[in-house]
Design goal:
Strands 1-5-6-10-9-8-7 form a 7-stranded mixed β-sheet, with helices on both faces. A 3-stranded antiparallel β-sheet has the order 2-4-3. It contains 11 helices and 10 strands. The longest helix is centred in the N-terminal third of the chain and has 37 residues. It starts with a helix and ends in a 7-residue tail after the last helix. The protein has 2 domains: 83 residues; 235 residues, BirA Bifunctional Protein, domain 2 (2-Layer Sandwich). By secondary structure, the protein is of the alpha+beta class. The protein binds 3,4-dihydroxyphenylalanine (DAH). 3,4-dihydroxyphenylalanine binds next to strand 9 and strand 10.
Length: 338
């Protein structure tokens, strides 16, 4: 036993530890449960009584030597790491700054959540489209100005491939593949060849709504939109439908919500007391028929709104371009709004 103790003492005096793995090897070999020190303590039980005092002393000295050596190696390693890299690698790491959800995503999710409460599910469609889905199936006549190069980004002509100018194209895709009753909302990015200014951008987002079933009436449309407006802007919100025109709805309307100035007049509502937020109407029977739905049996309504517009009203943003500039100073302000 004495020999063993001396051999380990000699061994340890020759050891040099340079890496974390070597330090761990040292600990496992000598100090762990299955290490040599514990082994010797086990053997100690069998040492003859008259030798116990002497051997016990040596064993304890070895124990102190091993644990001191281990602590010294460990300390040396830590200070080497600090000085070699100039960094203290034993310090806890810096936390990574995570961003916040984009205000457009916040508002889109909120719109989807509100409609989900009354049974609408979400559908999406492609941003790159053909003429049929963006215009023809929606009853746009061939000479309609929206088809003009001035307004629409064309990717190829004959056959026409273009960036969708509205999410109404997804209505067509949904009607092609789904049998009524249909109750869906369709959020997405749209593109228009517009001059970029504080009020308009060449890229923006819309949410489209579509309801097709038996005996759907204008009253259903109005009630649905009223529900949405109150959930989105508060329970005192009033809505107003003004007659309008869209090729794919008849009758068509623009919907306004009451301004928070209560009609007293402010800059936002330009002293009218009303803010326009979407287009809507009863789906034109021609559109149902072009998409294989029997317009004698089924009727429906549709609506479409710009997400930036709603976000600007909600957050009081004065310039639409801020939503596209990726300036963290702007984006960080919405972290509480999720
Ligand atoms: N697509 C129209 C636009 O971009 C908005 C719209 C109006 C959508 C009426 C509709 C609707 O579904 O029924 O201006």
């Amino acid at each position: 036993m004495q020999d063993k103790i001396n051999r380990i003492k000699k061994e340890v005096s020759d050891i040099k530890v340079a890496t974390q793995a070597e330090l761990e090897d040292f600990r496992l070999k000598y100090l762990s449960k299955k290490g040599s020190l514990n082994g010797l303590f086990d053997e100690f039980k069998n040492v003859a009584n008259e030798q116990k005092k002497e051997v016990g002393q040596r064993l304890n000295e070895l124990k102190v030597l091993l644990s001191n050596t281990y602590e010294r190696f460990k300390g040396e390693m830590e200070s080497r790491q600090t000085t070699e890299t100039g960094n203290d690698l034993t310090r806890s790491g810096e936390s990574i700054a995570i961003g916040s959800r984009h205000p457009i995503s916040i508002v889109r999710n909120e719109i989807c959540d509100i409609f989900a409460r009354i049974g609408f599910t979400v559908a999406e469609g492609p941003e790159m489209e053909d003429d049929w889905h963006v215009f023809s199936a929606l009853n746009f006549p061939p000479e309609h100005p929206a088809r003009d190069m001035q307004d629409t980004f064309f990717i190829a002509q004959q056959p026409d491939i273009l960036l969708r100018t509205h999410t109404s194209s997804v209505q067509v895709r949904v009607m092609e593949t789904t049998k009524p009753p249909i109750r869906m909302i369709m959020p997405g990015r749209v593109f228009r060849n517009e001059v970029i200014s504080a009020r308009s951008h060449c890229i923006f987002h819309q949410v489209e709504g579509l309801y097709v079933a038996e005996k759907v009436s204008f009253a259903d449309l109005k009630q649905t939109l009223m529900f949405f407006a109150r959930e989105m802007f508060g329970e005192k919100t009033q809505i107003r439908l003004r007659p309008s025109f869209f090729p794919f709805t008849e009758p068509s309307a623009e919907m306004d919500v009451s301004c928070t100035c209560n009609g007293k007049g402010c800059n936002l509502c330009k002293h009218t007391g009303w803010l326009e937020i979407m287009g809507c109407g009863m789906i034109d029977p021609n559109v149902l028929e072009s998409n294989g739905i029997n317009s004698e049996k089924h009727s429906g309504f549709a609506f479409g709104m710009g997400i930036e517009r709603i976000a600007m009203l909600r957050f009081g943003t004065k310039d639409i371009r801020m939503y596209f500039e990726n300036d963290v100073r702007f984006l960080k302000q919405f972290s509480a709004a999720i």
